Amino acid sequence: MRKDIFIDTNIIKNFTNPLDPEYKKLISWIRAEGVLVINQKLLVEYGRTNQNIFVLINELTRNGRLIKFEKSDLDEVKFSKVFEKKLKSNSEDWPHLKTIWLSERKIGIIIDLGLRQDVNNSPKRDGINPKAFSRPEHIDYINYIP
Question: What pLDDT, in 10s, does the model give residues 110-145?
Fold first, then answer.
């Protein structure tokens, strides 16, 4: 199983000169073995908040450890009407929820409470309950097996 993870923009902005040891550990793990899952919208958001992230993106791309879901992939994922009515996040974040659903481990680190709740209240996808956490130390992302 790939060691993939979704990291929201609000977390990526903390990658610039991180003083927090938990962010330093997360960055080191991503560089060493992590697989980052993204979509085009997220890539644009990353660029607005942290230009330095593109060094990591390029490194992951060269090493085959960046998975980018295209708009066509995301468009294939449909929410049930019942689930959509319960969503707490705004529709601008829905591509991110779909990206997590399409990922292998279906985990993310997300500060935004609405999106995090939506991930954690998602129905099973491929037999896995999607999970989101607000901080890196709240999940054993290194060894996580859904």
Answer: 999 999 999 999 999 999 999 999 999 999 999 999
- C-alpha distances out from residue 101 to 25, 29, 88, Å: 25, 22, 16
Q: Give pairs for 11-16: CB < 8 Å, separation 24+.
A: 11/109, 11/110, 11/111, 11/136, 12/46, 12/49, 12/50, 12/53, 13/49, 13/50, 15/50, 15/52, 15/53, 15/56, 16/50, 16/52
CA dist list (Å): 78 to 74, 97, 127: 8, 11, 17
Amino acid letter, residue 2:
R
